[in-house]
């Protein structure tokens, strides 16, 4: 089992290199080779999931790899998983497999596209598996390269602007994170007896006892670097006001990249809080808990209000992601067992429902070549789609109501746990957060009514319903949002011990 994490991590990178040796004229071979690589990776993720022991407490992984990398500076190639990272690893494997199928409509530079897509998958695996802070940072930065080119080359008409904005925002956050990593490395000698990048060791560092001299001021070490890490992770979530890169990136990115961006990449930010910020700086987590909770509430309501104002369906779903990630932040800020379980489950469920929505928008865009709910001239962009595309409409309804949080679908369970968890510590915020649920129902149902009901407008009369390939890659997501809405235990059981251990460790530092 020690080699399993290595195979999951490096198989996409190996596939990215091998694609370059396939002649560019053989587009079919490139596509199906990419499918084979992502399918093999997903099978390995399923094996990992099936062998996971959920009785292991905290971050102690069921499989781990520890090898010296730059030993003179205590930098190790160290991989591991726990109940928080495993759901993210599994959904990463699933979504990339689906995205390779959905990318068959890509028209140019197929070798480059699929190679970068596999490289992106490998770098995301690296972020979720790394237990060495330096290794974590390397994969965090490597992820920027394929995303930049996937948006900048294969995106929409303003793709260069969106790609540069995404890169600059994330890189700015990464620089602050690097400063925190360096500070932790050198400070570990005073608290742990040796300089280290090992995340598990850093979690026992008691950095709240250290002071920092900065610009002539004597400051608490843990609070300063908690803020720096917060900015780095907040940009990725994204938390308002660090969110402005997201709508541009989503709108301009090709469909598969939008799916990965919303389904997995945003979760890297909240994963950073759970894996790094909270365990290493628990006292600061409590100190800034009120601020984090209010920022989560702002995300929920502001994202929903922005979504209500959109006439571009892809931009609407992009802002809905801002709102839904606010629920994740509320769960994390609660620091209760129910709230944090709800946060991790919402990370997973949002990945499923938002992937469905972006894939469905991509299917519609292939037929219409536009995304307007209401055109700039004030006319309906779509109308009567339920009559014209009944199978597509049913799938759209499932994805829409999963995003809305309807009981019986996956989004309901996670949002309910978040509200249960946050009600006691932040009753006012919990009540105000309900406004976000109402607004979410408003903008999603408004969108659905305008697009699917009424007479079939002239521009929609030529649209064909979903084909076999599209049904094939949408079916797993439909099944999962229904199955996990009825029976979420397979995911909750995986995460419960790790989340419970984190809550217990945080409770030791409660004021």
Quick overview of this protein structure:
This protein is mostly helical and 511 residues long. It contains 21 helices and 4 strands. The protein has a domain of 224 residues.
What does this structure look like?
With 511 residues, the protein is mainly α. It has a domain at 288-511. Helix content is 72%, strand content 4%. The chain has a two-stranded antiparallel sheet. β3 and β4 (217-220) form a beta hairpin. α15 (337-368) packs antiparallel against α18. The radius of gyration is 22 Å and the shape is globular. The two termini are 41 Å apart. The model has no long low-confidence stretch (mean pLDDT 90).
Topology:
Layout lengths: L1 H18 L7 H24 L13 E7 L4 E6 L4 H18 L7 H20 L3 H10 L1 H11 L4 H34 L6 H4 L8 E4 L2 E4 H16 L8 H8 L2 H26 L1 H6 L1 H20 L4 H22 L2 H32 L16 H4 L1 H15 L5 H14 L3 H26 L15 H19 L2 H19 L4
Antiparallel strand pairs: 1-2, 3-4
Helix pairs in contact: 1-2, 1-4, 2-3, 2-4, 3-4, 3-11, 3-15, 3-20, 4-5, 4-6, 4-11, 5-7, 6-7, 7-9, 7-10, 9-11, 10-14, 11-14, 11-15, 13-14, 13-19, 14-15, 14-18, 14-19, 15-17, 15-18, 15-20, 15-21, 17-19, 17-20, 18-20
């Amino acid at each position: 089992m020690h080699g399993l994490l290595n195979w999951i991590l490096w198989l996409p990178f190996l596939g990215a290199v091998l694609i370059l040796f396939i002649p560019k004229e053989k587009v079919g071979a490139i596509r199906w080779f990419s499918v084979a690589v992502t399918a093999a990776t997903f099978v390995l993720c399923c094996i990992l999931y099936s062998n996971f022991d959920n009785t292991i407490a905290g971050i102690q992984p069921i499989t781990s790899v520890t090898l010296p990398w730059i030993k003179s500076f205590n930098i190790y190639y160290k991989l591991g998983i726990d109940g928080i990272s495993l759901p993210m690893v599994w959904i990463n494997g699933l979504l990339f497999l689906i995205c390779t199928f959905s990318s068959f409509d890509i028209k140019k530079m197929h070798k480059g596209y699929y190679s970068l897509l596999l490289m992106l998958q490998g770098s995301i695996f690296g972020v979720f598996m790394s237990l060495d802070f330096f290794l974590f940072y390397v994969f965090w930065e490597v992820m920027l390269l394929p995303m930049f080119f996937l948006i900048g080359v294969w995106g929409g008409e303003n793709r260069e602007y969106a790609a540069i904005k995404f890169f600059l925002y994330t890189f700015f956050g990464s620089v602050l994170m690097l400063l925190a990593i360096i500070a932790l490395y050198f400070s570990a000698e005073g608290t742990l007896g040796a300089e280290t990048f090992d995340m598990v060791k850093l979690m026992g560092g008691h950095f709240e006892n250290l002071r920092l001299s900065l610009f002539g001021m004597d400051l608490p070490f843990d609070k300063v670097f908690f803020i720096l890490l917060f900015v780095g992770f907040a940009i990725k979530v994204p938390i308002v006001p660090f969110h402005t890169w997201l709508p541009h990136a989503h709108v301009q990115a090709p469909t598969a990249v939008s799916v990965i961006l919303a389904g997995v990449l945003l979760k890297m930010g909240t994963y950073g809080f759970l894996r790094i910020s909270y365990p290493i700086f628990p006292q600061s987590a409590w100190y800034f808990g009120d601020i984090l909770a209010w920022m989560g509430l702002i995300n929920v309501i502001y994202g929903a209000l922005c979504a209500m104002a959109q006439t571009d369906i892809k931009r609407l779903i992009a802002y809905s992601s801002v709102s839904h990630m606010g629920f994740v932040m509320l769960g994390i800020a609660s620091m209760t067992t129910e709230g944090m379980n709800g946060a991790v489950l919402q990370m997973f469920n949002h990945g499923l429902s938002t992937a469905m929505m972006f894939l469905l928008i991509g299917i519609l865009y292939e037929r219409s070549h536009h995304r307007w709910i209401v055109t700039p001239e004030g006319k309906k962009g779509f109308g009567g789609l339920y009559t014209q595309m009944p199978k597509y409409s049913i799938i759209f309804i499932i994805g829409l109501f999963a995003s809305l949080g309807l009981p019986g679908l996956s989004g309901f369970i996670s949002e309910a746990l978040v509200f249960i968890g946050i009600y006691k510590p932040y009753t006012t915020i919990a009540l105000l957060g309900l406004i976000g649920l109402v607004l979410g129902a408003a903008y999603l149902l408004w969108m659905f009514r305008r697009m699917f009901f009424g007479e079939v407008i002239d521009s929609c009369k030529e649209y064909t319903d979903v084909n076999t390939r599209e049904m094939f890659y949408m079916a797993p997501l439909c099944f999962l949002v229904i199955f996990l809405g009825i029976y979420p235990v397979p995911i909750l059981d995986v995460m419960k011990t790790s989340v419970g251990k984190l809550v217990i460790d945080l409770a030791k530092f409660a004021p």
